[in-house]
Write a structure and sequence with these properties.
Elements lengths: L7 H18 L3 H12 L9 H20 L2 H21 L13
Helix pairs in contact: 1-2, 1-4, 2-3, 3-4
Length: 105
Amino acid sequence: MDVDLPSPRAMQAIAAAVVLLGFVADFRAVVVVALLALLATFALVEQMHRVTWATEVGLLVVSAILFLAGHAGWAWLAAMIAAGVAALAVAADVWVAPGYVRNPK
């Protein structure tokens, strides 16, 4: 099997795996590592995947702030939601739609 590492799905898989392994090992610094990795690759991502990327970055920022505040349970919850968004993008190729606004009539 040939894996295309620069593809968004491969990068999302790595981010999800790193956060989940950090949770299992209770290694809290992994949230910051995943956050920095996603920020470093944000410019390389196609426009249609950037909203998903930004959602994950936002959740990981919230998680890092909660770790600093001493709320590890809530911090891991935010990190697990970010990992879930990444895993959904990888497994089902489901991305947060950019610019989708529903106008009621």
